[in-house]
Write a structure and sequence with these properties.
lipid metabolism (chains A, B), 11 strands, 11-stranded mixed beta sheet, transferase (chains A, B), homodimer, 325 residues, phospholipid biosynthesis (chains A, B), Isopropylmalate Dehydrogenase, FA_synthesis (chains A, B)
Chain lengths: 325, 325
Amino acid sequence: MVKIAIDMMGGDDAPQIVLDAVQQAIKDFQDLEIILFGDEKQYTLNHERIEFRHCTEEIAMDDEPVRAIKRKKDSSMVRMAEAVKHGEAAGCVSAGNTGALMSSGLFIVGRIKGVARPALVVTLPTISGKGFVFMDVGANADAKAEHLLQYAQLGHIYAQKFRGVHNPSIGLLNIGTEAAKGNSLTKNAYNLMKEQDDINFKGNVEAKGLMEDVADVVVTDGYTGNMILKNLEGTAKSIGKMFKETLLSNFKNKIAGLLIKKDLKAVQTKMDYAEYGGSVLLGLDGIVVKAHGSSSAKAFYSAIRQAKIAAEEKIVETMRETVGE
Amino acid sequence: MVKIAIDMMGGDDAPQIVLDAVQQAIKDFQDLEIILFGDEKQYTLNHERIEFRHCTEEIAMDDEPVRAIKRKKDSSMVRMAEAVKHGEAAGCVSAGNTGALMSSGLFIVGRIKGVARPALVVTLPTISGKGFVFMDVGANADAKAEHLLQYAQLGHIYAQKFRGVHNPSIGLLNIGTEAAKGNSLTKNAYNLMKEQDDINFKGNVEAKGLMEDVADVVVTDGYTGNMILKNLEGTAKSIGKMFKETLLSNFKNKIAGLLIKKDLKAVQTKMDYAEYGGSVLLGLDGIVVKAHGSSSAKAFYSAIRQAKIAAEEKIVETMRETVGE
């Protein structure tokens, strides 16, 4: 049995998408137990493997993160994080306020001793369908070279345990592939990483090749990572929009659009990184998964599955032993 | 009359594309004079407004920049930059080694007194077709907040003079729109910029909106700017590749491809930033334009036109008066 704590109230379409996802996950995974935190008036399920706990507060998407988790002690998010801290659940999942969830992770669940800065990790799609682990996408905007080295070590374990890559290649995101390229942060990080025997460091990788399997894990600071993540999303969306406009611009193109509709949809699905699950805050003494903000029930379901696998693969325990003190 | 110095030997398809572009530019602009630097054996033109100067050396694409410009004194690139330094030409254009051209700009043409760090500027496409000025895309990887402020001031003049935007809006590239977002660099830069009366600062802009007219000028450090530039390019290319594969994957899709071929080509042209000319190194005491590396004759022609407009609009003089000491 694996027990996961879930925030029923976070996310744009909560609680409905959370309830749908929980129902499906409980049905699909016979070894899953859930502790669900939220407003009892909106709780509609009933299952022996779901324990419902009523909370009187919820954290809003625009709440100031640190203040919210300090003041709203009876919010579904805070109580979910406390369940992980107290060992009642192996991990937790929320689609709520990202900043508040990171703060809950840092201040309630807590860091693994020896991990200087936790990192927010996503799996992004590549053309081949293989995907890659990308971190940090925004936990720590002012990173130091030593932090990037630890990200590489955490990412190595994550790619091994969660994605099943035997000896994951680690790339350092940079503005050129040569060792001497970059800013002082990446130059220093390069020098630290190349000395490490416990990771398969393949050197610098460029942002232009990210969708083409340049490495299994790509490491960067939270400022750059968040920027690149948003740029990937925004560019794909803008190009998609232009393409759509072209397909609707005249009768001839509309016919073409009908012919390729299904296959285009398949491409779009391939590029949808919600398919790969949520973001994970790595380096914490428990599993904290953020389901994407505009999560569908399907994306939330993926995030629950992700927390379950992380628990079964003992990701936290391995990180504690190898990266921690 | 405007006189522009041109490096005939730089770029993947030099000298042919340079010669083609020069021929076209001389024909189109009756008030243009060119000093062309290169190997006399490969010079095939003959025109009263082209002055050819023979050089015995050339800088290769893989030469180490600073060493190359110090040692290859008789290279076409170095002599072109010297022509600007000595006031023989108002500006110069090369499609050669970017690093060497930046070094030529810095060490031969020289900075405007009072400008701490020159910035490399490109104009990028947006969906509307309007485009925006983006800087720094790689001149200075470790920027300080004061540098970003100067970029904003330089970008303001560039957008006004070169792109004809009356009161250009300036955005600071960041990982969120709120004032408190970002790393220490962007937080400090935000505070400096919001105090300035001489620029129309509109606050932080996000990487996801870059193609949707978020600002007339978007300012960032050279590390982030180079990263985003490559990511935009790479993502657009990867998505284009997937579309193309889809359109060739079966008979039905091939028919659709034929129907929309012309309109797709138009979208592609709209997104091709070579159409907007080359990159300009702003903050120097002369105009230095880098035509894109894999330049076509058309892109090189755009870069010549760009240098000519910059000279006519007295961009350097204006920067000297307003940003310089």
